[in-house]
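The instructor's notes for this session suggest beginning with a concrete chain rather than abstract definitions. Hand out the sequence below and ask the class to guess, before any prediction is shown, which regions might be ordered.
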Amino acid sequence: MSKANIKEVKRVFPEVAVKDLRRESDPSIFKFSSTDEVEPLEGTIGQDRAIESIEFGFGIKTKGFNLYAAGPPGVGKTSTIKSYVQVKAKREPVPDDWCYVNNFSDPDRPLAVSLPPGRGRILAKDMDELVNSARAEIPRAFESKEYEERKTRIANEFEAQREKGLAEIEKKAEERGFAVDITTAGIITIPLMKGRPLRREEYSLLPEEQRREIQEAGEELQSEINEVLTRIRRLDKEAKEKVQDLDKEIALFAIGHLLQDLRDRYGDFPKVLSYLDQVEKDIIENLDDFRVGEKPRVSIPGLEALQRPPTFDRYKVNVIVNNSDLEGAPVVFELNPSYYNLVGKTEYRAQFGAMTTDFSMIKAGALHRANGGFIMVNILDVLLNPLAWDVLKRAIRSEEIRIELMGEQFRAIPAATIKPEPIPLDIKVVLIGNPRIYMLLYHLDEDFRELFKIKADFNIEMDRTSEHEEKYASFISNRTREAKLRPFDPSGVARIVEYGSWLAGDQKKLSTRFLDIADMVSEASYWAEATDSSPVVSAEHVDKAIDHKKFRSNMIEAKVQELINRGIVMIQTDEAVVGQINALSIISLGDYYFGRPSKITAKIHLGKRGVVNIEREIDQSGPSHSKGVLILANYLAGMYATDKPLSISASITFEQSYEGVDGDSASSTELYTLLSALSDVPIKQSLAVTGSVNQRGEIQPIGGVSRKIEGFYDICNARGLTGDQGVLIPIQNVDNLMLKKEVTDAVKAGKFRIYPVKTIDEGIEILTGVEAGERRADGTYPEGTINYLVNERLKQMADILKEYEYSEEEREAA
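After discussion, reveal the predicted structure:
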């Protein structure tokens, strides 16, 4: 068809109104001269759903209703939870202290003792005083005259009985003609002959009968001597027992009143009373430790270090949790939730080449300190620490804190160590993390959904209302006071409000990423001081801060624009070309992202392969992009193949793209390119396009629209604005526009244009200046329209392909 038969569009295409390109904030709505006059913000704004979840989670006491605070960084998850939990904790009772004491019956299993707040340290002090008093009183009691007299009396009684027994032995020996010799080795009997001891030679010369009589008499005498010696040993044992009883009596007399005082003081705590009974028994059994002065130590050469003085550490009380200074329940935010930092540990000391430990070296973990209250941890930190997640779940599920060696179950050879008694756990756990980790844990960890039943979802945006704008002013007031920054005037606050909408990417929303807002407040205050030493921060200082923040981060963007301006990356912004269009995409660098123009081209040829996505063929197309290409292929089939097969082979590609492509925001752009190639109608290169498309040809909204427009504007501005340049965007994205002032000024001056588009037909008309053409009742399109040209081209290709296939069959038959 000739150019003369093409139906050009006569109407003027609607553009986005200047007032809709950016929603500015009117400084006059703020009734203050500076934020020093504004009350600082209390609480959190824009997080009603999360706050309700937090209040519910802190209120419910049922097991398993712990919290997971989900949201991206900077939305105030930690600060919000801290503020609420601190208020809640003050209304809760102060939990008990926890101590570990020696288990005298089984030292490898120390006992856990709970006491009211502050009583743990008092018990430790009382036990220290008891031991110090015992070390002073017991030696003094054993040095008393009464003790010496009673001990001497017992010794004298035994000695008298002993002498009596020995005399009895001598008498019995004399009656049988024997003498006795008492030595340290025992009692020796010696036969007598005529009053004198019989020598061995004389004994051997005696008649056999007489020797037998002497032997029998000696055996009888020995039996009687053994009976006497047995009686003497029994008396010796009784004497020692009497001395021990005397020592116990004296010791109890010395410390009994001290122990009784403690029993009276801790009469309401059965476990402490049981412990005091063990202490009393151990003191009595180890009185020598308290009477070291009586036995001088003997130094063994070379082993002096092994001969340590007796220690009294076994009587100490290890207070691992002291809540005496608390007002309400404890609140713990554990920054390093490792295995030992969560559940505590048992430390070791090197001693003569070996590692030793005892109950006094047990150290509390964050769960101990937060017991009876609240603990907050970052879930990513927990997951990155080996076994920390497992031990946290085990503690919550079992409702007890068990101190064990990390990875003990994985040891090939079990290590000998102490096993402290578990402590009951009553705690509310708050995990802080992003939504992705929440979803992964919910689907992959069965315990997670049982233990963390409440999700506090933090939003990244809130409605832009006058109330929330006032809250922004209160937040700025709070930030300037906390960080000792310069106050903001109304224009400065208004610009921060606009910055919040820019971050949210929506005119009707404000960002709740208050970390970013706080950073901008700090930067603007810096530039107010650095540039003109202004006492207040105004709009120009905020603009300067935004510009410098962008300059520090946009090196890659600047290099991309330089490559485009130098023609290395080929982007055309004038003339019209068939099968070529400017697409807009987003490049994300983590802390900064920007819009980048890309060239998309399409080629048409005979065949039945359909629409070929070159990026997909080489595995550089993401699933969303591949879906978008399939959608536009089905759009073509629905529009032009209702009465015939769609016989087409077409290829589409992002030119000079050397990385993966994903997202469907370019699907409408690719469809425009195909329509241009099929109709042989050129597309204006002064325009760029963004927006996805569905199978009905409706343009769908996309993300990052402001950055995309600004990216193409910067290219056009560098080459010189002509008034023909502009961008096609989905009409639904008009509310998302928060363009920089430079762009709005250019639009206002008629140098740059932004077209809102609803359908593919609207877009192709703007891009080509040719009418799209509506389908008639008979399925045809008006002549000279884009749809007519495309339909005719597809018919021609189908006919040529059909003739080719028939000729192939004829040749084969011949």
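Then share the key points. The radius of gyration is 48 Å. The chain has a mean pLDDT of 87.
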